[in-house]
Structure formats: C-alpha cells, structure tokens
Write a structure and sequence with these properties.
Brix domain-containing protein, rRNA primary transcript binding, alpha+beta
Length: 297
C-alpha cells in the first residue's frame, strides 16, 4: 500500500512540474507575440545601492550637480579640458629588471597613448624622477609595476601638483597574445570613451584617465579607446572601426587589453610617507565587503 502511495505522489509531482513548464512556455510565447519583455531579471547592477555621491541627472540633486560643476572648473585637470597644454607622458617601470611581457606591454601602451616616451628605469627613486619630469614638460607619469614576471599594477601621477592614482592591473593581454596584427595600430590620435563613471570619485578618476590622451582626436585613424566601469572594475579596450553603411558600424579589437581596479587616490604627487589620501581601498574594504551592491565609481 505504501508503494502505491509513493508512486501516486511522484506522479502528482511530475504533473505539477509539467504544468509549470507549460505555463512558462505559454507566457514566453505571449511576451514574444506582444513584444513585452516581461519582468527584468535582477542583477548586481540594477540592484545597486544608491549612493549620495551618484551624479546622474535623474538621481542627483541640482545643488550637488552645480557644486560638482564648480569643482570641475577649478580642479587639476581643468587646464587640460580647456586645451591649455598638450599631454606629454613619461612611461616607466617600477624597477630596471623587468621581464619580457611587462616590456612588451609598455611598448604597446606607448603606441596607444600619443606623445609617450618610455624611460628605462635604473636605480633612480621615483621622487627624484618627478621633478626632472616636471622640468622637461611632462604632464603625467605612468609607472607599471611587476610581480611574478607579469604586470600587476599601474601608478598614474598627474604633474605638477597631482593627484596620484594607484590601480591594480590584471588580465593583461598583449596584441600578439590576442593574435592581432599590431601594424593596424596607426599613429593617429584615438578617440576616448569613458563609460559608467557615475559618482564624484568616478568622475575624478575618469577625468584623470582622459587627460593622458590628446583632447583633439584624429578621426581619420578610426581608432577608439574605451574605459568601461562595471562594478568598480575598469575595462580597457582598444578598437578600430569602420562604417559598413549609413547606420551600421563594425569593430575590430586591436589590443592590448587589461583591467584596472582603483586602490587609492592621493592628493599631490607620489608620497608614501606624508601623502594625503582622498580615498583608499584599505579604509573602505570592510564597508565594500559588507555591502556587495555598493560601488564607489
């Protein structure tokens, strides 16, 4: 008798499952016919916790937007956006003994960023390099850090008065590793796209990244550089594009590609002892780990 009941129970379960599948199938069919996308699936992005520092027009207060606009008009990058100087970049490594992949990555980075000079690091301290770079008219210093024979960090110093941003560098792939033709990378100045930087800190970081590229792109080269922020990871991509028709556009990735994660933003130039930090990952780590849906950029 017990076996008969078990069989009947299993049949009831299978029947309910079958009915649910049929109902979902019919619902999908109705949505497809009516063009209704239905309920939007929950993701970390659309469930993001609202921050007081978000500056999107639909969420930010007008007073705060006006305050940020005043800050932008007088910050360290205002002269760049007013086209008062042309960016000149000094690219170097953390030590003189760098491995093959880091060296290749630096060479490719110098081809992507216009007006970049690679400085072969010796035993010079970074604090001594900075004043010489200022005297030579450099607007920024980019330092590539290396660990385990591969690049793992990027330090960006804006001259002459800062700020200094320290990024963790990951998922580095050179053009050769992507099996792309490096000859497609021309000397034309690329366009720059900054996507999804919504907070005050995000705006500062985005303006800092933009300022190492020339403000006047050469559209003839059809090159575009993208910094896309998603969950506080900044994805770098480098493409060439061409128009197939009046409405259709094709993309081809050129490389290199990498991912940045902000570790600190320091006021002024590089100073590990007496530097005044505007934001550090160390201080915010517990808060970030406590709420995974709250992002800083």
């Amino acid at each position: 008798m017990t076996g008969v009941k078990a069989i009947k129970r299993r049949r009831d379960v299978h029947k309910k499952v079958s009915e649910k599948k049929k109902a979902r199938s019919e619902a999908r069919k109705i949505r497809k016919e009516t063009g209704d996308p239905g309920q939007t699936p929950k993701t970390i992005e659309n469930q993001r916790k609202k921050s007081e520092t978000i500056l999107e027009p639909e969420t930010a207060e007008q007073d705060r937007i006006e305050e940020v606009e005043r800050d932008i008009a007088t910050d360290e990058f205002s002269s760049y956006f007013n086209k008062e100087y042309e960016p000149k970049i000094l690219l170097t490594s953390c030590t003189k003994d760098i491995k093959k992949k880091t060296r290749k990555f630096m060479i490719e980075l110098s081809r992507v960023i216009p007006n970049t000079t690679i400085y072969k690091r010796r035993d010079d301290k970074l604090k001594k390099i900075i004043p010489h770079a200022i005297d030579d008219g450099y607007s920024d210093i980019v330092v590539i850090n290396e660990n385990s024979q591969k690049p793992n960090g990027l330090l960006l110093i804006h001259l002459p008065d800062g700020p200094t941003a320290n990024f963790r560098l990951s998922n580095v792939r050179t053009t050769k590793e992507m099996r792309k033709d490096h000859k497609l990378i021309t000397e034309h100045r690329p366009e720059v796209i900054l996507n999804n930087f919504t907070t005050r800190l995000g705006h500062s970081v985005a303006r800092m990244l933009a300022s190492i590229f020339h403000y006047d792109p050469e559209f003839k080269g059809r090159r575009v550089v993208t910094f896309h922020n998603q969950r506080d990871f900044i994805f770098f991509r480098h493409h060439i594009y061409w128009f197939k028709s009046g409405e259709r556009c094709a993309l081809r990735e050129l490389g290199p590609r990498f991912t940045l994660k902000l570790q600190s933003l320091q006021m002024g130039t590089f100073d590990t002892k007496f530097g005044d930090y505007e934001w550090t990952m160390v201080e915010k780590r517990k808060e970030i780990e406590k709420n995974r849906r709250q992002f800083v950029l």
